[in-house]
Specification:
With 286 residues, this protein is mainly beta. It has a single domain (23-281), classed as Sandwich (Jelly Rolls). It is built from 2 helices and 18 strands. It has helices spanning 4-10, 24-27; strands at residues 14-17, 37-43, 76-78, 89-92, 95-102, 116-118, 120-122, 127-130, 132-139, 146-154, 168-175, 182-188, 195-201, 212-218, 222-227, 230-236, 245-253, 269-281. The strands form 3 sheets. Strands 2, 3, 4, 5, 6, 9, 14, 15, 16 and 18 form a 10-stranded mixed beta sheet that branches. Strands 7-17-10-11-12-13 form a 6-stranded antiparallel beta sheet, with no helix packed on it. Strands 1-8 form a two-stranded parallel sheet. Strand 15 and strand 16 (230-236) form a beta hairpin.
């Protein structure tokens, strides 16, 4: 169950900035050792708290841009259960489920005619952190056209003018038709145009069959990714990775990368999240 310490964390916006040099000990681990880290944010999903205009302390249900904006030629509309008569989010036994379903006929007009509805959660205006360890324990869904993700973006009130891409850290992206593969990427604008540094992790068994821990450790010098605590890739931190980032969790349907669902894709599709956590080195590991 959630502790009083974690309840206090969840009730406030936390911004933590670490000196990159101070985090090299814990960040250089090939296998993550929890004893080297101190928790700064922990969301166990015993319940789901959504932000409101009156209280920003909770998850928001849309990206930085307008809700009606559809990106990547995706086929879903991310609904807000406070505004639409459907709810893509449910919590049971400490697990959050984001469900993607076919759009009811009576909602097509209010969801841009998108054939599917789904959900996105972001911690924008609630939690952000520069440098540290960031992770989700989750079970991704299987099926053609399903695109699960856990990623991070810097927080802005609106998209900055003249910026091609917000510096993006993809901790985990998984395409449902490739159950043995997941993807990690850095997207940077440091040269004035979009540059991506992708790493594909293959032959991992069936990731959709159970829960796995997807982690990234970000320092001033580098970003390292981990699957179930074991390091799978490392890349130098781009120069524009110099601003605190917030979390995003979403289940997309279709789009230019995974392609459209087919007759074998089962709906509702369910992306299950056990917890989300952020940590900083506690100084005990050199």
């Amino acid at each position: 169950m959630i502790s009083k310490f974690h309840k206090a964390l969840l009730a406030t916006t936390i911004t933590a900035t670490l000196l990159g040099t101070s985090s090299l000990g814990a960040a250089s681990q090939r296998t993550l050792d929890d004893s080297c880290w101190e928790t700064t944010f922990f969301e166990p999903f015993d319940a789901l708290t959504l932000a409101s205009n009156e209280d920003p302390n909770g998850w928001t249900t849309q990206y930085i841009w307008d809700r009606d904006t559809i990106i990547n030629q995706e086929m879903q509309y991310y609904v807000n259960p406070n505004e639409h008569p459907v709810n893509p989010f449910s919590v049971s036994d400490g697990v959050l489920t984001i469900s993607a379903t076919e759009t009811p006929q009576d909602l097509l007009q209010s969801t841009q005619g998108q054939p599917f509805i789904s959900g996105v959660l972001t911690s924008r205006n609630w939690f952000e952190q520069q440098y540290g360890r960031f992770e989700v324990r989750a079970q991704v869904p299987k099926g053609q056209g399903l695109w699960s993700a856990f990623w991070m973006l810097p927080t802005h009130a609106q998209w900055p003018e003249g910026i091609a891409i917000l510096p993006e850290l993809d901790v985990m992206e998984q395409l449902g038709h490739q159950p043995g593969t997941y993807h990690t990427t850095l997207h940077t604008n440091q040269t004035g145009k979009l540059t991506s540094h992708p790493y594909d992790h293959n032959r991992l068994g069936d990731l959709t069959a159970g829960f796995h821990l997807y982690s990234a450790v970000w320092t001033e010098q580098q970003v390292s990714w981990y699957l179930d605590g074991k390091r799978v890739a490392t890349h130098p931190s781009p120069k524009d990775f110099n601003h605190p980032k917030h979390f995003l969790l979403n289940l997309a349907v279709g789009g230019s990368w995974p392609g459209s669902p087919n007759a074998q894709t089962q709906f509702p599709a369910e992306y299950k999240i056990d917890y989300v956590r952020a940590m900083v080195p506690n100084g005990s590991c050199s």
